[in-house]
Design the sequence.
């Protein structure tokens, strides 16, 4: 997996890094942007939310444990993309021009029989998200 991750310009992690060592491994080897999850109490340098602008698209990152993920489109109406974790359940939902997505979990998904992650490409002013399922 790490060899494939080197192909991407940016790695986004939406919290619950599993361990401080794993967080440091990602930070040292990749262009990483991450947010603090409910199990990241030792990672004091992380924020609960991060805002990115990539290719003119406004993106908010959050774990989701401090907000009701059902209403994220109402809380962040000026964004093009909302990425969240916490639920360990993958989804991509489009509402008008806004997309809300969760990659699920690569190590501990809930409610599904696979692990998962998302890849994103912004091209021609369009955000394309692909959900990748990993069966073990």
Sequence:
């Amino acid at each position: 997996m790490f060899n494939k991750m080197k192909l991407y310009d940016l790695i986004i992690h939406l919290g619950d890094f599993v361990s401080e060592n794993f967080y440091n491994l990602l930070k040292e080897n990749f262009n990483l942007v991450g947010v603090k999850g409910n199990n990241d109490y030792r990672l004091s340098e992380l924020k609960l939310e991060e805002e990115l602008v990539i290719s003119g698209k406004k993106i908010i990152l959050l774990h989701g444990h401090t907000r009701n993920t059902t209403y994220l489109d109402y809380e962040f109406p000026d964004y093009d993309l909302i990425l969240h974790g916490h639920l360990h359940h993958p989804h991509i939902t489009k509402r008008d021009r806004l997309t809300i997505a969760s990659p699920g979990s690569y190590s501990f998904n809930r409610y599904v029989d696979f692990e998962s992650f998302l890849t994103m490409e912004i091209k021609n002013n369009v955000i394309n998200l692909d959900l990748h399922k990993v069966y073990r």
User: Anything to note?
Assistant: The beta strands are 11-13, 32-34, 49-54, 57-62, 81-84, 91-95, 98-102, 115-123, 126-134. The chain has three helices and nine strands. The longest helix spans residues 20-29.
